[in-house]
Amino acid sequence: EDIRNILEKHGRRLSSFRTVLDFGCGCGRTLLWMQAQAADSQKWFGCDIDAEAVAWCREHLSFAQCVVNEGSPPSPFQNDQFDFIYAISVFTHFSEAYQFAWLRELRNILKPSGLLLATVVGRDIWGRRLPRSLARQVERDGFFFLSCNVMGKVFPDFYRTAYHTEEYVRRRFSEEFEVLDYIPQGLGKFQDVVLLRKREALPNAEA
Question: What is the C-alpha to C-alpha distance for residues 109 and 181, in angstroms, rounded to an integer?
Answer without folding.
Answer: 21
